[in-house]
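FORM 7B: Structural annotation worksheet

SECTION A. Query
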Amino acid sequence: MDTRNDWTTTPISPGIVRGALDLEHTERGVLPHRLPANARAQIPDGQLAMAQSQPSGVRLVFRTRATAVELDVVATKRVYLGAPPRPDGVYELLVDGRPAGRAGAPDGDTLTIDMASGTAQARPGPVATLRFTGLPEHEKDVEIWLPHDEATRLVSLRTDAPLAPARPTGRRVWLHHGSSISQGSTATAPTGTWPALAAALGGAELINLGFGGGALLDPFTARALRDTPADLISVKTGINLVNADLMRLRAFGPAVHGFLDTIREGHPTTPLLVVSPVLCPIHEHTPGPSAPDPSALSEGRLRFTATGNPAETAAGKLTLTVIRDELARIVEQRATTDPHLYYLDGLALYGESDHAELPLPDALHPDPAAHRRIAERFARLAFAPGGPFGTEAR
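SECTION B. Predicted structure
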C-alpha cells in the first residue's frame, strides 16, 4: 500500500455491491456469489458451484471525490491440464459510466482441473493489490467491475477520500439467466459480455445469472430468480441441456413449465422473455454430450465436438433445433394466459450468416465481436419501443 496517501478503508457490504445475490465473509475476504446460500447448498456439481462464484456482472459502485482507489483481492486462477493457459481476469474501472482504467491480479489461488478425470486440486496464493490513480477530483460515480470468469475474494477497499453508496439511477433492473455464453465465455473484459453490453445499450441495471455449464433448468436457480427483485427477466436456455446430454424431450417440456411457473410465483406480471439458443453448428442436429477435441488439445488448442448420434433424436435426445421448436411451442401455449411472456429465437441474435463471418473459435462460444453483435441485436429486439422490454412494458 502507498503510505503517502491518507487512505479511508470501507468495508465490503451490500450497499456498495451490485449484481451479487449473496456476500460470503471468509477468512480471506468477502466472496460474492451469484446464487444465494440456500441454492448453493443444493448444487450437485463443482462446475456450477465454481461458475456461480465467478462474479460476472458484479461490480463495486460508490460515489466519491477520491483520486486514487486500491482494492486488495485474492483471485482464483484456473489451470486446465492439457489446455492452453487462461488469461488473467480483468478488473474494469468506470467513472461516471465511462471507461477509466483496467487492472489484473497476476497471482492468487490456483485451481488445477483435470477435465478427463473430473478432478481438481486447489493451492492457496497471495493477495494482490489493484491500483487506480489519477481520477478526477470532483465528486463522481465510480464502478469497479469484477472479472466475469475468475472468482475473486474482496479483501480491502481503500480510497484517498471518503466514499458513499451511489445514488439510485432509476434504471430498471434486468435479471438474466443463461449459460457460459451469458456469463461471458470468451469475452475479454467484464463490460464486454453480451448481457453487460445489452444492459448498457438498454439503460438497465444488470443482474447476470449466466452460469458456465449451469443453465440446466435447476429448481434452485428458478427459486433464486423468483426471489430476486427485478423489473425485467430473461431466461436463455438450451445449449447446456444438449452438451451435457442431461435430459430427454419427455422431461424437457415439463421442466421448462416448472421453471417458468416458479419464476411467476414471485413475478406474476413482470415481462419475462424466453430466449432459445444461438447457432452452434456442432449441436444443431447432433445430440450431446460435447467433449474436448483430442486432436485440437494435442496442438495446444481447445475445441469441442459433439459425440452424440443424430439418429437418437427419434428416441427423444435433444438437439438445438428440437429445443427451439419446443420452447416456441411452450411460450405460445402459455402466452394465451400470460400476456407478459415473450419468446425470442436465438438465431435472430446469432445465426448462419453471423457464423460465416464470426465463427465460434472453439465451436461452442462466441468471440468478443460476436458478443457485441448479440448484444446489439438483443437491445434492438428486446429494449426498443414495441419490444418485450420497451419502456411501455413497465
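SECTION C. Observations
Residues 249-266 form the longest helix (18 residues). The mean pLDDT is 94.

SECTION D. Sign-off
Analyst initials: ____
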